[in-house]
Design a protein that fits this description.
- Helix 4 packs antiparallel against helix 5.
- The N and C termini lie close together (10 Å).
- Helices cover 37% and strands 29% of the residues.
- A hairpin with a 4-residue loop joins strand 6 and strand 7.
- The chain is of the alpha+beta class.
């Protein structure tokens, strides 16, 4: 695959707590916008962990997939989790893929990093639209996780706050369009789009979307290879 999604977020939290919030399925599915449900399958003592994932489009319409993940703890205190995943659902926009999470300790917190690539399920044309959206959803979810860890704000509250803020910005723009001169309406609309979200509202723009160093961007395991 020639193109990858890269997202990095600095999270000021304990490494063990961050690891738990990202590795336990019942916690992971609370903050990650890309999944509705994640379930680990029975695991052999010395084997990798298989899992099932699902994304609910509509009531009764669920896209399912399956994956495999491994975790590793380094002597330096950093950790890595690599995975492969695939879905044969006809509506899935991702047919198969692979990626990793890296946890890099720093003096300011933990650099939580992901890099993954995938084979599109609906062809490259549809993927030109989908890839920016899945990249945005990944970054937004990482910031949602950061707020949970740094401020204690539950992911569910973060989602409702983001929706409420979006509705207010949309309403303000609609009122401006119908009640003010065109120039004023354009300014209000631009402000609604460009002004940063509230500090307690998740925002994809707070995350890095390009790797700041070559070493971070390199896949850590052969498990990463997608076929």
């Amino acid at each position: 695959m020639a193109w990858f999604v890269y997202v990095e977020c600095l999270i000021r939290a304990d490494m063990d707590v961050l690891w738990e919030r990202t590795q336990r399925p019942e916690l992971h599915q609370r903050w990650d916008l890309r999944f509705t449900e994640i379930d680990y399958l029975p695991r052999a003592d010395d084997g990798p962990q298989w899992f099932q994932y699902a994304f609910k489009l509509l009531p009764g319409l669920v896209i399912n997939g399956i994956g495999i993940t491994t975790g590793d703890r380094h002597d330096t205190g950093g950790r890595t989790s690599a995975l492969r995943f695939a879905s044969d659902h006809p509506l899935s926009l991702i047919r198969s893929g692979s990626g990793y999470w890296r946890y890099v300790p720093t003096d300011d917190g933990v650099r939580f990093i992901t890099r993954y690539g995938y084979r599109p399920g609906w062809g490259r044309g549809v993927d030109l639209v989908f890839r920016p959206l899945i990249g945005w959803a990944t970054a937004w979810s990482f910031d949602r996780l950061r707020l949970w860890l740094e401020t204690g704000q539950p992911p569910e509250r973060s989602l409702w706050q983001a929706l409420a803020e979006l509705c207010l910005r949309t309403l303000a723009t609609a009122i401006a369009v119908t009640t003010t001169p065109t120039v004023v309406a354009c300014l209000i609309g631009a402000a609604a789009i460009l002004l940063p979200p509230l500090p307690s509202t998740p925002a994809a723009r707070r995350c890095l979307r390009r790797s700041p160093d070559r070493q971070t961007a390199q896949p850590p395991y052969t498990l990463m290879e997608t076929r």
